[in-house]
Amino acid sequence: MSQASFDRTHEFWEAVNVVAHKSGLTEAKNVDALRAFVKEHQRDYVQSGRCSEAERDRIEEQVGRYMRSCTANIARLEASLGPDQPGARGLNPHMFAHRHGVALILSERLHAIGSSFDCCRSVRYQQLKQQQLRQQQQRQRLSSNSTAYRPEFDAQQQSLPSNLNQEQQQLIEEENRALVQQLMSLNQGATSIETTMRELATLNQMFSGQVFHQAQQIEQIYEQAVQATMNVDKGNVQLKKAIRVGGSARSYLFWFFVIAAASLLFLDWFYS
Question: Transmembrane ranges (predicted)?
Answer without folding.
Answer: 252-271
